């Protein structure tokens, strides 16, 4: 059943890529980030192989391809952001009940987003399992939209470019990327948590004795 489903998905992606090229990738990333349904690692890795490597396009196109996919991701995430921002907790709690999501987790995420702002959004955009959900607390916390969009695009661009590039490099073995992400998810999540910790430490470096001492030493050296 799973193999048949994968075959159906890949066939649909191939049809979309054949007909629409990178515009199809853009549209799929809008849909993926607005709904969280289609897995980006499959879309982007397949695109890296089919639309770049298989067609003999130079690998120098990969960064530009990341822009297409990153913009699609940011626009799709913006839809979720505005649903959360305009609809508020009543709308989000209704969806949480349908999908059996613990509302306490949403409350906690909203509190942390209030506290750390767009930096948390940027880091969340490169963590599997969190990427498409981070727009919800951002909307509930009413982070300024421009900051949200820029942070989302930067994080999405990094994620998309890496996956497209990996698909290009692996060629016919591009499906290994999805398996690798599943296998090493704890490591990826740990790196994401580390990134958040580094961001927090940087934001509050003046209140951390060791970092404050380093900062004061540098200031004395320049005087």
What would you say this structure looks like, in words?
- This protein has 223 residues and is mostly helical.
- The chain folds into two domains: 2-183, no CATH class; 184-223, no CATH class.
- Helices cover 80% and strands 0% of the residues.
- The chain has eleven helices and no strands.
- It has helices at 2-20, 22-35, 40-53, 62-98, 103-116, 118-124, 135-140, 145-170, 176-183, 185-203, 209-222.
- Helix 2 (22-35) packs antiparallel against helix 3 (40-53), helix 6 runs parallel beside helix 8 (145-170) and helix 6 packs antiparallel against helix 10.
- The longest helix is centred in the middle third of the chain and has 37 residues, at 62-98.
- The chain is globular, with a radius of gyration of 19 Å.
- It starts with a helix and ends with a helix.
Itemize the secondary structure elements and their pairings.
Blueprint: H1 2-20, H2 22-35, H3 40-53, H4 62-98, H5 103-116, H6 118-124, H7 135-140, H8 145-170, H9 176-183, H10 185-203, H11 209-222
Helix pairs in contact: 1-2, 1-3, 2-3, 2-4, 3-8, 4-8, 6-8, 6-10
Secondary-structure-based class equals mainly alpha
Total DSSP helices: 11
Any low-confidence stretches, pLDDT <50, length ≥5?
210-223
Radius of gyration: 19 Å
The total of beta strands comes to: 0
Shape label: globular
Q: How much helix is in the residues?
A: over 70%
Give the ordered list of helices and strands. Answer: HHHHHHHHHHH
Major β-sheet, in short?
Answer: none
Q: What is the typical, i.e. mean, pLDDT?
A: 80
Q: What percent of residues are in strands?
A: under 5%
Note the gap between the termini: 70 Å
Supply the number of structural domains.
2
């Amino acid at each position: 059943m799973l193999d048949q489903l994968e075959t159906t998905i890949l066939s649909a992606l191939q049809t979309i890529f054949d007909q629409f090229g990178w515009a199809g990738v853009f549209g799929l990333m809008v849909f993926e980030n607005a709904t969280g349904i289609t897995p980006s690692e499959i879309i982007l890795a397949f695109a890296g192989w089919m639309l770049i490597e298989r067609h003999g396009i130079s690998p120098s196109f990969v960064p530009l391809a990341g822009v297409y996919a990153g913009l699609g991701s940011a626009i799709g995430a913006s839809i979720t952001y505005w649903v959360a921002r305009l609809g508020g907790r009543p709308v989000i709690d209704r969806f949480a009940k349908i999908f059996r999501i613990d509302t306490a987790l949403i409350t906690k995420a909203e509190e942390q987003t209030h506290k750390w702002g767009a930096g948390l959004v940027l880091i969340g955009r490169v963590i599997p399992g969190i990427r498409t959900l981070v727009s919800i607390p951002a909307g509930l916390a009413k982070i300024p939209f421009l900051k949200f969009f820029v942070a989302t695009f930067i994080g999405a661009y990094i994620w998309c470019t890496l996956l497209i590039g990996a698909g290009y490099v692996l060629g016919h073995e591009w499906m290994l990327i999805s398996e690798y992400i599943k296998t090493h998810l704890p490591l990826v999540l740990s790196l994401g948590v580390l990134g958040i910790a580094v961001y927090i430490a940087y934001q509050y470096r003046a209140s951390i004795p060791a970092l404050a001492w380093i900062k004061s030493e540098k200031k004395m050296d320049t005087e």
